[in-house]
Specification:
The complex is a heterodimer of chains A (379) and B (305). Chain A is α/β, with parallel strands linked by helices. Chain A contains twelve helices and 13 strands. Helices cover 41% and strands 21% of the residues of chain A. In chain A, 56% of the residues are buried. The chains are: A alpha/beta (379), B mainly alpha (305).
Chain lengths: 379, 305
């Protein structure tokens, strides 16, 4: 019996795409929907599903699963999606460590992977793959934009703070790649640290003229509330991850006036964005975050490729994706040779609009910016 | 490093230790008296923080928020003690760990169901915000000083409760010999519920106090829970005094380690490598402390064999 089933599944595998109906694409979305980082995954999912709903393309089927922010669960889900769900395209992962656990295996099995968030350097340089597209940014990009802003603002002596894990080290590397001033101090905090009194005291004593920090999610909330209450009033700059729509309400007044860098903001002036922001508010009754915008763009990229090619023809479908022929909510958007974005980055300021804390666009930081690893990609 | 900075960091260490004590006190009481490993203690911390955030948002009063945190956590504690925990006292530790881990998941997803996935806002009251100038020219946030004060007051209160009151006698008797105090006609079920609620209320209060300077979000209790377990292992399981000393040791080691170790390595290493090595070692420091204590005192500093 067992061998019969085996034989049947081998036959099914051999038949491959022949069973799939013409033009249909099945998407497997693995993202974080429970636990501490759930807000990000929910935004990516909602943005993605909004775009598919607006397009009304019946050939697109989406399966969503929750990875609980755990690499081992993400790997199990990916196996299930590839082997029993038989998805054609995968997407959704938020965290770089989970992406590293899933993406290389998925592309090795011939599945397209469209990253709506994580952009680890290992997948942008030597590890680039024709089936892997990053629709958000390479991890360093927003920090590079922050460094460029620090130069424009005339900061000469920055105190830098990031958690002690790969993306934290990438953050300081990214910032220093563009920032031209001195380092007043460089501190790595514990991942998930909630009390920053010790670091704030170091900032106070360091003689810095500005503070750069990358503390995503709850870590950023804690830091900003404690910083605002410490009496240290140096200007703060950071990537958008600590200032997204989901967490600003929890930081409140402490975040107002802080400059942060992003590839997107809700008041970015283009038609696609206006339509997106209005539709998102209509559908979910909250303002979209940058994560939602990335999910939305990912879905629209996929839809644009579906109009041009059939997913069973991987080469043609890959070409169609690479053209990035869709109306991005970021305005202009294209892929570099490593299939990572070449796009503009902006400086935003946290403001209070009515009762809601949100970001206002101030100006460009980096234009037509690619990532530093593209040259290592032989593709 | 200047002397003033050092003093400031010592204050920071004491403050984080005092907060840990509120968590560890409940945990160690529950373990000491009932022999129960309660992984869901971190969830009660979260319940306190969420209750405080909800009430503060509705009423604008921080004091009411604290009362709500105490009440909500105590109530949640009573509820789970009577429905779930009570069935676990006679089971082995593995069953307790499994069941209370399930409670963590239920609390986390229940909280998400009620409050949504995004962190809540809870701020310190205006009267306590901003820094104050301490003698010697140290600028220090007033709220953190208040936390130290509140924590030490509660520690003193707990000592009095256990050393001087009838309930305290029953708690100590319960630690020494469960069967005997039941035989002496004390309603052991009621006593257990009471102790559990007390521990829960302390965790809830810690959640609310800390929530005001950190982020109130689902899963906020688990990192603290791990530290609290380290504290009670260092202090000796079941000992309130051990919990206080252990909490202060862990708070100080954690804070001073993260500041001093990178500086120490900077003496003979290049700056960014020193930061990296120092930070990595600092995050291990409390576990090294725990291993060191256990090496010389296998039952913890104030534990009984």
């Amino acid at each position: 019996m067992k061998s019969l089933v085996m034989a049947a599944s081998v036959a099914a595998l051999a038949a491959g795409g022949a069973w799939a109906e013409e033009g249909k694409v099945k998407v497997g979305m693995i993202t974080t929907l429970s636990g501490g980082g759930a807000g990000l995954g929910i935004d990516v999912r909602d943005g993605f599903l909004l775009a598919t709903k607006m397009a009304g393309n019946e050939n697109l089927e989406v399966v969503v699963e929750d990875d609980q922010r755990k690499p081992e669960i993400a790997v199990q889900l990916a196996d299930k999606m590839i082997q029993s769900e038989k998805v054609d395209v995968m997407t959704g992962i938020i965290w770089s460590n989970l992406a590293m656990a899933v993406v290389p295996a998925a592309t090795a099995q011939g599945k397209f992977y469209l990253s709506p968030n994580a952009g680890p350097s290992a997948l942008a340089g030597k590890g680039c793959n024709p089936l892997y597209f990053n629709v958000a940014w390479q991890n360093d990009n927003l920090h590079e934009a922050a460094g460029a802003y620090a130069n424009d603002a005339g900061y000469k002596n920055t105190f830098m703070l990031a958690p002690n894990y790969p993306a934290g080290k990438d953050a300081l590397t990214g910032y220093k790649r563009t920032y031209e001033g001195e380092a007043a101090g460089e501190v790595y905090t514990d991942l998930g640290q909630t009390d920053y009194a010790a670091q704030i005291a170091q900032i106070r004593a360091s003689g810095a003229d500005s503070v750069f920090f990358f503390l995503p999610g709850g870590m950023g909330i804690s830091f900003l509330k404690q910083y605002a209450n410490s009496g240290v009033d140096l200007p703060v700059v950071g990537p958008a991850f600590s200032f997204d729509q989901g967490i600003l309400q929890a930081v409140g007044e402490a975040a107002v006036g802080i400059k942060n860098t992003s590839q997107w903001n809700k008041d970015l002036d283009n038609e696609a964005n206006k339509e997106f922001v209005a539709a998102f508010q209509e559908e979910y009754d909250r303002l979209p975050s940058l994560y939602a915008s990335q999910g939305y763009d990912t879905a629209n990229l996929l839809l644009s490729a579906m109009d041009k090619a059939d997913v069973s023809d991987a080469e043609a479908f890959g070409e169609a994706l690479k053209e990035a022929d869709f109306d991005s909510v970021r305005g202009k958007f294209s892929f570099g040779n490593n299939q990572h974005p070449v796009q503009d980055y902006y400086v935003r300021e946290v403001v209070k609009e009515g009762d809601v804390y949100t970001n206002k666009l101030i100006g460009p930081s980096l234009t037509d910016h690619a990532d530093a690893y593209a040259a290592d990609c032989k593709m | 490093m200047s002397f003033i900075l050092l003093i400031e960091q010592v204050l920071n260490g004491v403050q984080s230790g005092v907060m840990l004590f509120l968590m560890a006190a409940g945990l160690t009481l529950i373990f000491g008296v009932m022999g129960l490993i309660n992984l869901a203690h971190g969830s009660l911390y979260m319940v306190g923080a969420f209750a405080a955030a909800a009430v503060a948002a509705a009423t604008g009063s921080f004091l009411l928020a604290l009362v709500a945190a105490l009440a909500a956590a105590a109530l949640a504690g009573c509820l789970i003690e009577m429905t779930v925990i009570r069935r676990l006292y006679d089971r082995d530790h593995l069953d307790q760990v499994l069941a209370t881990f399930a409670l963590i998941l239920i609390f986390s997803e229940g909280t998400r169901f009620l409050f949504g996935s995004f962190p809540l806002f809870l701020d310190i009251p205006a009267a306590l915000s901003g820094p104050v100038m301490l003698p010697g020219g140290i600028q220090y946030p007033l709220y953190r000083l208040v936390i130290i004060g509140v924590g030490l007051a509660i520690a003193a209160g707990l000592f009095l409760l256990i050393a001087r009151t009838r309930i305290g006698i029953q708690i100590r008797a319960g630690e020494a010999d469960r069967e005997m105090i039941a035989a002496l006609g004390i309603d052991i079920a009621k006593l257990y519920t009471l102790i559990f609620a007390l521990g829960a209320a302390l965790a809830g209060l810690a959640g609310a106090l800390v929530g005001a300077i950190q982020s109130v979000q689902v899963g906020m209790g688990e990192p603290v829970l791990i530290l609290a377990f380290v504290v009670i292992v260092i202090g000796g399981i079941g000992s309130i005094k051990g919990a206080l000393i252990g909490a202060l040791l862990v708070g100080l080691t954690d804070t001073l380690g993260s500041v001093l170790l990178p500086l120490f390595f900077a003496n003979f290493m290049e700056a960014s490598a020193a930061t990296s090595v120092g930070s990595s070692l600092a995050s291990m420091s409390i576990y090294i402390l725990m291993a060191g204590v256990l090496l010389f005192k296998p039952t913890g500093l104030f534990g009984e064999a």
